[in-house]
Each structure stands twice: as C-alpha cells, then as structure tokens.
Specification:
Blueprint: E1 9-11, E2 17-19, E3 26-27, E4 34-35, H1 53-62, H2 66-119, H3 123-158
Antiparallel strand pairs: 1-2, 3-4
Length: about 160
Amino acid sequence: MPDEPPETAISTSDDEPSKAPSAEDVKISGDGLVHKGVLQLLAASYRGPLPPASELLRYDEVLPGLAERIIGSWESETLHRRSLEQQDASVAAKLLLRGQLLAASLATLFFGGSVYLMSTGSGVAGMAVVVAEIVALVAVFVIGRGRDAPRQAGRDSELPATEE
C-alpha cells in the first residue's frame, strides 16, 4: 500500500493544470484508524445529443460496442423524429388544403345565392349576402394571420442572425 497517492493533474482553470493536493492524515473517530488519501470529484458536461469522442472511447473500454450502440440509438431516434415531423407537415398541408377547398365552396355557394336573390328582384338581400360574405372572408384572413403571427415569430427567433 503506497503512502502517497499518485500525482494527478487537476485543472483549476482553463489554462493550467495543477498537481493534486498532498494527502493529509485523517483520523476517523471511533475506530482509531488513520487513513491517508485524496478524495477527488470530477464532473463533466457537454452540449449536444452525443457525448464527445473521448467519452465514447471510454464507454467502449467499459463495455465493448457500447459507443456504437449509443450512436445507433441516436441515429434511430433522429430518423424517428424526422419521420414524425414529416407526417405532421403532411397532415397540416392536407388540412390546410381541405379548409381552403371548403371555404372556396362556401364562398361560391353564397355568391351564387346572392346572384339568385338579386336576379329574382331581392337586390337588397342579395347585396347584403355579398357584403356579409366579403366581411366573413376578410375576417377569416385577418384572424388567421393573427393566429399565425406568434408561430411565425417563434420561427424567426430560431433562425440565426444575419449581418446586414
């Protein structure tokens, strides 16, 4: 049993590592034993979906093939997420098209009704239907843009800043 712990480089700043502090005698009360040693706490963090390559190498040392499994899991999760996003976009496009076709059908129906009313001598009622239809269509577009504005603002904030 060595008396001194092995020298270990500990980074105290981003620039220079320093040597591990020397071990001090620590007396644990109750059993009368004296222990020498250094307690080190190492913490690491990283950003992104995968750990750094050096960390993956250490995972492979612990359990061969673990790094490949981690990367494979990340790849399958990425493919799954992309397929869900494509499905969402496809469904949204179909719903948008369906809504536009329904709105066009209703607008045509109301316009036809107003033309019928005007041709049968109820010009005031026909004009009222035309005006109501125009107001309704304008309201739909204004309200629709108002609902899309927060979503569009959210998308704009995710875009990288460009220099002008």
